[in-house]
Structures
1.
Amino acid sequence: MADENENSDSSGLEALRRYVPLAVWAIVILVILAIPFKIIGYGYLPGDDALRHAAKAVSGKPWSEILVLNGTYKIDHEFGWNWLLEKMHRWTGCDAEKLVLFSVAGLFILAGWSAMACLKRPEAWLASFVILTLVSDLAQRFLLGRPFVLSIAALAVILLMWQRHGPSPPKWQNVFWMTPLISLAVFFHGVWYLWAMPVAAFFLAQQFRWCFLLAASWVAGTILGSALTGHPVESILQSVQLALDAVGKHTTQNTMVSELQPSGGDIFTIILLGGLLVLRQMAGLAAPPLHRNPAFWLVAIGWVLGCETWRFWGDWGTPAMVVLIATDLQLLFELRFPADSFKRLALACVLALACFATMTTDANSRWSSTLTTQYLSVAEHPELKGWMPDKGGIFYSADMSLFYQTFFKNPDGDWRYALGFESTLMTDENFEVYHKVLWNFGDAKAYKPWVDKMQPQDRLVIRGGRNAPPNIPQLEWNYGVSGIWLGRLPRTPAGGTLPAVPAAAVR
Amino acid sequence: MPNETVSDDFIGVELLHRYVPLVVWVVVIFSIVIIPLKIAGYGYLPQDDALADAAKAVSGKPWPEILVLGPSYKMDHHFGWHWLLREIYLATRCDTDALVMIEVSAMFIVCCCAASACLKRPEAWLAAMVIFSVWSGFLQRILIGRPLILTIAVLMVVLFAWQRRGPPPKWQAILWMTLLITLAAFLHGVWYLWALPVAAFFLAREFRWGFLLAASSVLAALLSAALTGHPLESISQAATLAFRVEGIHSTQSTLVHEMRPANADFIAVLLLGGLVVLRQLAKLEARPLSRNPAFWLAVLGWILGCQTWRFWEDWGLPALAVLVVCDLQLFFETRFAADSFKRLGLVCGLALTAYVAATNDVNSRWTNVSTAQYLTPDNPDLDGWLPDRGGVIYSADMTIFYQTFFKNPRADWRYVLGFEPTYMTDGDFKVYANFQTSDGDPKTLQPWMDKMRPEDRFVTRAPRSAPPDIPQLEWNYGVSGIWIGRLPRSDTNGAPATIPATAVRTNTASLAQ
């Protein structure tokens, strides 16, 4: 009897083994799904572009009606993404906040699932995520809700497919899946020229046939992606012009947006690469040598260029690093754990738990810091009535976060912003003022040209503590919401007294 | 015909191989030269001694005419360096800016070229530069334009020479070592710190090398002291200064930053671990770490650096760099033939990476001085606010001395605090130390206020909205971030010439004009 029981137990377990791969897939899919929802549950909102994309979709206005622009900017450079969000808003009627949450969760899930779909052992992707979340801000980057995550997803798929394909030469038909991927990335994200980096990486890895196919797909994808905007040539040319302006107009890099500033090089990358070499050697992994691996070369290119401009590292080098680690770990897992073993299931459970914990932990309030943000919105703060710009007014500020937050809360506001999401899109005069403000660490004197040309309907908005109103006595000031001062040209009401606190008297 | 063409092409390529080592040297030297020039192009200026050294060279004055000095000062402790800069100034008549640029570029190039020249594979130096520039302040240190860089260069040459020649050394080695250390001690001064590498050689059981280096150090200390013209004073003052620098401070918080303790450098330990793994995996025929003086110097520097940061930065870190470079050199030798094109590709990649890693302006490290504003007499806002003839600038902020002296090398006033608080008079040092330990409480400055004369000025850093709380003086917001105080003056109408400190807070608007 006992033997029979043991046999039946054993055969029962054996029967269950066939479900292990399925269970592993279910776990990794669910954990990728759960992560953004947990983070959104904290009340997380990204701090930058995702807000303005959502607000633009709700407003339905072109950028020229939202920002005071110079002559360079003619076409929306992220046309596809804004078009998609606008359609979503029309179809569902959801507000800006819901659109942001959709962007955050949708893009994260899409990137995670598409990469994992290219792996035989998807738990390797989770392990790689855990490692890089600990040493970089990968989690925050993937959860920014911006269309560059789509480019990252497309890049990861291409690198993983190369790995999966093995050493045999690729067929020319690969162009048919790479081209649509790249054209989608170009349509939604816009920066077609940056695909030169993976092309170069394949070339340096001496994967010439892949390199040729990728280059062809890049050219075709760029033409297709930009054709979808309706302005193929202008779209392509404008992207290049924007890139040149974004780095070329600044005298020093410290006035650029933070993601275009230099990174200084990431020591952990060098340590991780060393660790991979040790792992390969000790575990006897049959991985292609690093110098023949395009992911390695993309890491190297991204690292070097990142020293000059951080985004090369953040958006291209880091994802390539995730791929490199994931593929090596996949080899290790294949070597150590049979596909249908319960040990593999246990490993997947532990990795899923670790991934969930490391990504969703609210260390340093990284996901909940925006909960205390106060926005300039009459709907939320009726006391701001009269202090927001009037119809046709201009919102002057040298702080980009004020644009993001105010536009996000006032997508239908009938005013424009002197500074939007990229300072080099400002008019030359406005850019000069902005540059001077940053150069002089916010010295009030630097705002003078703006103060001189302000109209009654305009507002100047500056961040500062309650006890430190801006030293600009030409304007009257109101401590609008916590940490933000609103200035306008003085008004004298019928009673003859000033409606607000003049700057000099607050102390 | 086709075969002949192929053969010709092949021979042509083969002939090109012989030029690879030469091209590698050209690329390495070019990278070393271009890096400081690019950084200088940003408008970079170091923030400390390099400014004072250049200004002293232009002024032509001895320190007692520049600083209010206590009895501990007897002679210039960087005699050789100041003499050299003065000679350069007299030969070129360049201004302080140009002199600082010469200090920065020349020291960096000398240090890197000296290290590279000791290597069979100079690209290993570029690789080490990349590694060290991303996790340590080594690069900024050798771009600081101070004579300590020469000591670092000499130290590295000695360690590389040991690595290259191997035991046992001939006694003739004493000649070149003495010469090099004399040069370092003459220009930099701190001869006694050569005890550290001597100890490292003994700990590595390289006794013969240890004895030779000890002998060279003693000879060099005597020779360099003799070169100053005041051998005994020079030696005794260096020792006295070393004791006073640490001894007269009741807490380390009043020490200059580089003399304060540092957190133990964890990445250095990781790097050492990485070297051990590399040796094992790549089967490098390197000498064991326990027999390597560079390793022991790194260890000594690391431990002593926990107490005084300079031990790590000026001795431990260069020793670690030598260790890394030597292992990388062995690795490159095993992987790349000296004349292979792959080596050339590697060198080009390393040169590009080193250039980008070194010159990128992360955290505005090279441009943060671009916005600095200086106290200069050509600023009309400062008319009457700089010290009068024979006056003294009272300040507890060393950067005020560096920047003001740099811009006014010939000015006819002195500074109560210069490049080292130890040199202050006892009374002034007490005020300075009290001010530092009380987190800048103005009350601690009372002794200075009491002895200030009409020609003197008190200078401090504070924002426009926060003038110093010292009502005995009248204040002027001189340049951005700096307040200047002087004894109150009455103009012809009897009204104060400027805003009294206590009144400013009630009328902020007037300040914004």
Note: Residues 309-335 of chain B form the longest helix (27 residues).
2.
Amino acid sequence: MSAAPVENLAPELALEARRLHVRHPGVDRDVLRDASLKVRAGEILALVGPNGSGKSTLIRALGRDLETRKGDVLVEGDPLSTYPRRRLARRVARLPQDPQTPEGLTVEALVECGRHPHVGAFGRLGPRDQAIVAEALEAVEIADYRTRPLEMLSGGERRRAWIAMAIAQEPRVLLLDEPTSALDLRHQFELLDLLVRLNRERGTTIVLSIHDLEHAAHVADRVAVLSRGRVYDVGPPERVLNEETLLDVFRVESRITEEEGGLTMRILGPGDPIRNF
Amino acid sequence: MNALVWQVRSRAELLFEQPMAWTVVTGLALIAAGALATAQGAVDLSLLQLPASILDVDHPFHGVIWDVRLPRVACGALVGLDLALAGALLQTTVRNPLADPGILGVTAGAGVGALMVILFFPGHGEWVPWAGFLGAVSTIAVLLGLAASKDGQTGALRIVLSGVALQALLFALISLMTYVYADRAPAFTAYVVGSLNGLGWTDVQRMIPPTILGGLAVIAYRRTLNLLLLDDSAASGVGVPVVQARLGAAVVAALLTAAAVSAAGLIGFVGLVVPNAIRLVVGPEHGALLPATALGGAALVIFADLIARTALSPLELPVGALLSMVGGPYFLYLLWKKLP
Amino acid sequence: MSTEATPLPKEFLNWQVALRLFTMTDRNGAPHIGVVPTVTVKRPGAHLGVIQHSIVCGLLPHPRLLESKTNEFRSLYEENIEEGARAVYDVGIQYLLDYYDSSDDFDPGTITSLVPEDCALVDALKAEPKCTLSFNVFATEDPQTIGAPRCQQLDCDVEILSEGPVYDNVWWHNTLFHGMADEHVVLRFKHQRSWDTRFGGIQALRG
């Protein structure tokens, strides 16, 4: 027997975007203009930025949900184009922003979909698959709802069901596009705590786009700020989320203080950018 | 409405632990319909006499039963099975419960293909299902091209309108052919409306290969079909080749439609009524939906043909007309519910 | 049509260079009103027969330096872009602190601007490639550095460029601070003559 493949060596960079130019089909202008980003294995990276800055587009491009016009995306060092569909799905799982749920589909059936990359079109769901599905449901704490149709769940619960499906893929990287949008405050915190737990317990690399800067600072190891289709700055939240950035990118005057456990931001009002960005 | 349905469903689940139970129910319905249909008709038998008439060669009605009734019932079963499955597949492909081979013009496309062989190659009856298949596949290709939208979710209105437009075009073509070849017309009128009249064992034989092919494909790919229920982005996120899968399902639907159309003509609405009704109680999961749909479709057509034959006895209505009378209002109801 | 440019008034050029250095040191690159002239172009059918637009304008390096400056802009961008756009911007500012040193380093007769391809100004210029640039600075925060209030009017012939060394220089300069622009063109204003008036007036006659 030959030696086992070297696949299991965890590379340093889970994902890398290199000089991406992306435009949406039918639109003339690039949404992402020469954006580059390195995602380190095992980290939680938050993408922030004003509307239209390209957060969603970048996350989707990283997950091959969008075509890139120019530039490369590398997954664990290899170009995206070399990944067959199911192999990619075993590495990277996506949670789209507003997934449409077909009527009548149960939570269990949805999470079982997450086993497809491992099981294939013809495979049966064996005991190990069933165990993983059950464990995913437990991890997001909706095991009690497993036979319930998705439309019977609240928004937050439904979001968690989709996350369970992503977990069932056993991915190394989780890409989440605005996972906290349209959730009330408590559920936003619960969801962020869930993501932190997934990261700490399983070592899953997590990339999420998020509107709330304080939440981003609270949950992320590094924050990438996007502005007008480019990555403005990337690094630890305390360094990146500063008053200058809020002025340049978000065009607000603010007072930011670093306290135990995070940053406190007070938005004072509209402001003039420092950099004519 | 949804809450009520869910209550019904949860109670049903208490009684029926597994969705497979519905397959049993529809299977029983099929057997009942088949027995009734074989027994009743221009020549009436009681159900008790049925086994004897089938098995005993000397029974006075043995000939009628074997040469006329049984093949007709068998054809009805296969037609219903094929059309119901085709409807379910099309609904999954276009992600819309308003899809059905009739509405989308696929049966008309199959009809054009079949008619071409009937008219121009009358000696080659065995080609009919395959010509029908070509016609159906071409129709689906045009339809998906017309109706596709950028986000992969085909809007209800768009798909229905595209289908209606195609159907009009194809029916015009059929009318033209019927008119030009009016000397062979009597056979066509029944064909266009859809009828099981005069079908024999050869027709059953011709329908079996495509039905088996389609059925096997459907069984093999049932898990992928479940995944197609998700939107394109989510499905491709778990590694499904979405475009190929949807096309594949559409092609199988075309195959099954062609099989049914080649024997019985342009029967419609089976593919609309049966999958939607079954989905209401079983849910969209294909492993449970498809068997019950297939059996239910078979039962429906057999039963409809029984009524068509006996309701206005001795006049025989074509079964297609009866199904349209039931299916048409149901389609309107679905349309009213689904459109904003 | 390719006319030669008449050299700009030396004093105007010195003023522009000093002003631009001031914007780098004191305003972090944000354009001062002194580098935002109004362009007036003839257009048949328009009110009073002309249209006017404000543009941000730049200076073109002297032909002997053009290619090397363009390459420097480009390498600054390429070397730093993966750190983020802010890093590129800051590095660009640092570079420009030395860039705006002496008016001898710049083309004596040209002013440039990068504008969208698809705008009324470009359409009007395509029909009539001549214009007047009006610089009006009525108040200054820092008379020591950038001098007294002044108005300057320059009549120019205009070239519209989508490629070439001049285009590349302006494009890369812009890319450093605003990211890669697509579907933009470079306007090259070639000075023909100037009408120079300043508050406190007599200097105008002093050539």
Note: Residues 62-93 of chain B form the longest helix (32 residues).
3.
Amino acid sequence: MKSRDEAFEALFKSEYARVAGIANRVLADPHEAEDVAQEVFINFHGLHSASAQFAPAWLHRAAAHTALNRLRGKRRREKRELAQAPQEASRTVDPQRMLEVGEDRRMVRAALARLAPKPAAVLVLRASGLSYAEVAQALGVGTGQIGTLLRRAEAALRKEVTRGTSL
Amino acid sequence: MAHLSEGTLRRMVDDPDALTGSDRRHYADCADCQTRYAGMAEDARAAATMLAAPELRLDVASALKQVQAAPAARPRFGFTLPILRPASRPMFAGLAAAVVVLALVATAFVNILPLFQPKTVQPVPVTVADIQALSALSDYGTMTWSQQPQPQVVLSAADAQSIAGFKAPVASYVPAGVSSTITYAAMPKAVAVFTFDAAKAAAAAASTGKSLPPLPKGVDGAKLTVTVGPAIIEVYGNLNGGTTTSSQDINVPELVIAESAAPVVTSTQVTAKQLEDYILSIPGLSKDLTAALKAIGDPTSTLIIPVPIQYATSTTVTVQGVHGVAVGDNTGLGSGVIWIKGNVFVVAGPLKQSEVVKVADGLKS
């Protein structure tokens, strides 16, 4: 029988890439994604046994929600800073940046941050390669609901991105 | 035949083989479904493109080392229960007091009660000095877990039920303003064995320079087996608060509901009377506590609720037709109620006592 530490190591090795991938899908920032992934594993280790059946589902959900919370926090900070220094902001925005890939990503992440938690989580979990069954387990819903949730989330994301670009 | 649902069509985008035979025939002949499918496929492609992310280059081995070297997550009272933000601590002193009371209950089981299977609850006043005096009992033997407590945060009420073996209680009344987000935690049965050890007791007493009363005859080597749980805890509130950027920084729960199998204590060779007499002879216990313990008619069927008198007050209430104890802090900012009806139930939160009792009365288990 595996010791607690051995079980955790095995879980870490099998799930770390996926957990970091989910966080990266949300944040589009590999460095911050790894930070989130490590935080998620540290929290898990303090709370649960690595041999628990629900471990992967817990990690996937925690990765999505922790990263989405960071994204929303970041968005709020950016908004506050812009509101506090509008003149400075207008001076520092470079119109050329609008053409850059980074700017597209920023706008998509801003739209993602505006979505409700469940649709946002469905999108990032599925986009991170989780199967319908895995997404369902992570979110505690039936597998049969995933198609509908995904469809609505994709439509909502598209609408939010369009709204963001027309602002 | 009705048109294909959006869920079915969306799934078809990812897995064309997922359609049943009749769905496939309908789709082949239905221009409307084909148009809807095309729109969904386009949205799915757009979402996949939009959610593209920069490449991750991971060093799993060094990440593992970092995680292993990190300090353990903050203790969370065994469960994922409230960690109060420093700024909000004074406001929720009441809730903290209620939590302390619950923590002390466990201590009371282990240290005091032999051959114990509670059917009712009874508050007793305790002071910090009482707690220190009682904690000396742990020097009188060795505690081991034959089944470790393994509290787990789970994803749903159904998961909690599968761990605890009973249905998660459902609140039919929840006060206005309390979030509808519920986090479930569950714990299978845990069993601890406390073995009295006269030599260890003597050594402990000598090392502290205190003289503790000698163990009664025949108690050396006696074992108390304490069984707690299984239990389910429901925490209402968005624990990963919206403004937080760290999952360590969680909000105060708005309501906590817990149900646990009543604890059972069995003993190999100690009687309830022997232990009660012994506990009452421990120096440092307050007169109030001694009197309250003596006043309990049948200690083997009464769950003692220690109420820290500096921080909280208690009243007896009727909950679901049985006798319960309500604990409230002196500021009125938080309260809890505990009762036994087959299992032990607790409802607590930063709420008025009347609200907590109303939630308790409306609980369906």
Note: Residues 73-115, 241-250 of chain B have pLDDT under 50 and may be disordered.
